[in-house]
């Protein structure tokens, strides 16, 4: 994953101008959200009957800057558990166990196991995306790679009947990945929340009711 432009260059770009004028960005700033991504999650939860129980255990993969973890912590309450993991350091979040590590590494797996304290996972979520290179095929394959890592993690940790929600892109490798996802979940849904920019290739895959693997 590579950064194709310096931060200063991005701030003078057309993208930055669109970002600064985006109504969801302005709303996030007004409401004190860490990012506009919070609205993507809340819309998905509220409009697609994805109920988060008060005592649920949820793992947020690639959680920086923490917007999703914050919204989920509000829903699970003190009896639930939200674990956020990312390579980047994060500011503390009340009610969230934060881990700075690669979730696919032995160190990350060990830290997650300790944070779970033996509890089964009800939901795995991921708003991860690759650093965009500008090469559409390269970016697509990186996205599918992240999706495959997320699915592998979900298969390891989800309880039977649990759910997974992840960002993805339409393109090379998507159809094969969706078929693979369908092997482990009874229901699959594609979701494009209103808070996602219309020009963005992103949408979300929701897998419901994890089928336990013998």
From TrEMBL:
Its EC number is 2.1.1.166. Residues 1-32 are annotated as: Disordered. Pfam families: FtsJ (PF01728). It comes from the Bacteria. One of its GO terms (molecular function) is rRNA (uridine-2'-O-)-methyltransferase activity. CDD domains: AdoMet_MTases. Residues 34-210 form the Ribosomal RNA methyltransferase FtsJ domain. One of its GO terms (cellular component) is cytoplasm. The keyword S-adenosyl-L-methionine applies. The keyword Nucleotidyltransferase does not apply. The active site is at 167 (proton acceptor). SUPFAM superfamilies: S-adenosyl-L-methionine-dependent methyltransferases. Keywords: Cytoplasm, Methyltransferase, rRNA processing, S-adenosyl-L-methionine, Transferase. PANTHER family: RIBOSOMAL RNA METHYLTRANSFERASE (PTHR10920), RRNA METHYLTRANSFERASE 2, MITOCHONDRIAL (PTHR10920:SF18). Belongs to the class I-like SAM-binding methyltransferase superfamily. RNA methyltransferase RlmE family. Specifically methylates the uridine in position 2552 of 23S rRNA at the 2'-O position of the ribose in the fully assembled 50S ribosomal subunit. This is Ribosomal RNA large subunit methyltransferase E. The lineage of its organism: Bacteria, Pseudomonadati, Pseudomonadota, Candidatius Mariprofundia, Mariprofundales.
């Amino acid at each position: 994953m590579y950064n194709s432009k310096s931060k200063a260059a991005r701030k003078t770009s057309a993208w930055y101008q669109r970002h600064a004028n985006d109504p969801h960005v302005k709303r996030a700033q007004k409401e004190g959200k860490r990012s506009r991504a919070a609205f993507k999650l809340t819309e998905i939860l509220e409009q697609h009957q994805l109920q988060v129980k008060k005592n649920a255990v949820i793992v947020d993969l690639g959680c920086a800057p923490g917007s999703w973890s914050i919204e989920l912590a509000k829903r699970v309450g003190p009896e639930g558990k939200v674990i956020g993991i990312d390579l980047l350091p994060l500011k503390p979040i009340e009610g969230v166990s934060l881990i700075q590590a690669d979730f696919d590494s032995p160190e990350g797996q060990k830290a997650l196991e300790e944070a779970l304290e033996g509890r089964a996972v009800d939901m795995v979520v991921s708003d991860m995306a690759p650093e965009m290179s500008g090469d559409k095929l390269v970016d697509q394959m990186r996205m599918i790679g992240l999706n495959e890592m997320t699915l592998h993690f979900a298969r390891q940790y989800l309880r039977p009947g649990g759910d997974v929600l992840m960002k993805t892109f339409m393109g090379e490798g998507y159809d094969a990945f969706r078929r693979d996802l369908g092997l482990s979940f009874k229901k699959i849904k594609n979701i494009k929340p209103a808070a996602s920019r219309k020009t963005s290739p992103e949408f979300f895959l929701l897998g419901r009711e994890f089928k336990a693997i013998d």
